[in-house]
Amino acid sequence: MAVRLREGRARQKRGLAPVDAILEVEFATLSTPRRERERVRGIYEEQSALLLELLTARFAGKSIEAIPEEELFPEISRIYYSKFPVAYDSDAAMSEAVLTRKDNCRFGSLMAGDVLSRLGREVGVIIAPQHVLLKGRFFSLETGSPPEDCIFPNALLTRKYPVRQEAGLDSLLALAYNWRGMRLCGMGRHAEELAAYSKALEICPGYIQAMENKGIALGALHRFDESRAVFKEAARISPLDSRVERGERFVMIREIALLDEGNGFKPRGRSPGRKQP
């Protein structure tokens, strides 16, 4: 087991699970003081080490790589729900989830994926609208669900999440940039917001939520031709996602309002807002 752990840690250092990178994006967005940054990192390391310790103890004498996913994944969930004071909060940033112990799918998937990668298991992530989960070879793990509901066969992915993107653990950094963009939107800093979505798409091309948000951000900057091009590409990649059409419609209304501003035109309806995760 020690050899496997060393190999896993080497892979992690190459950036398989970019914990520090994600936290840095959030810290920069929130202007988090240095002392608070160290506190968040310390708590994350404690939680990750505890999960790793309990998981290896549970399967003492066995190779983690040989444990079937339908046995391994529920055990991760059992440890999570029995040893961590979890209060699920899907909207919390990862750093907030660490500090408040309010788990969310992004933080849970990153921590479980980090630990599994150290133990030599190959896992990826599935990014679905408003959700993130881990994907193994045959089963997927939803860290925000209790043990009895936490896994399902990958054969059911299309039915359960018809709109989704499959990627590696490092793509979770793209979610942090998408989150950064949403926060910058709330501050009215649309140019920086756009840059954040562009960075998310650089890391994870075809990330639909970031594409939707980028299209809306371009509309806010009155770059309507570019906005339409982004929505067109999003619709091509994910034709089943109705929010792409809603976002495009919102930008179109914004463009019409700008053109008719002199006539006192006032578009009705609310902004669809920025999408996460």
Commentary on this structure:
The protein has a five-stranded antiparallel sheet with strand order 4-3-2-1-5, covered by helices on one side. With 277 residues, it is an alpha+beta fold. Helix 8 (172-186) packs parallel to helix 10 (208-220). The protein has helices at residues 2-13, 19-30, 34-58, 69-83, 94-100, 105-118, 157-160, 172-186, 190-203, 208-220, 224-237, 242-259, and strands spanning 124-128, 131-135, 139-141, 151-153, 165-167. Strand 2 (131-135) and strand 3 (139-141) form a beta hairpin. The chain folds into two domains: 2-167, Roll (C8orf32 fold), CATH 3.10.620; 180-263, Tetratricopeptide repeat domain (Serine Threonine Protein Phosphatase 5, Tetratricopeptide repeat, Alpha Horseshoe). The protein has twelve helices and five strands.
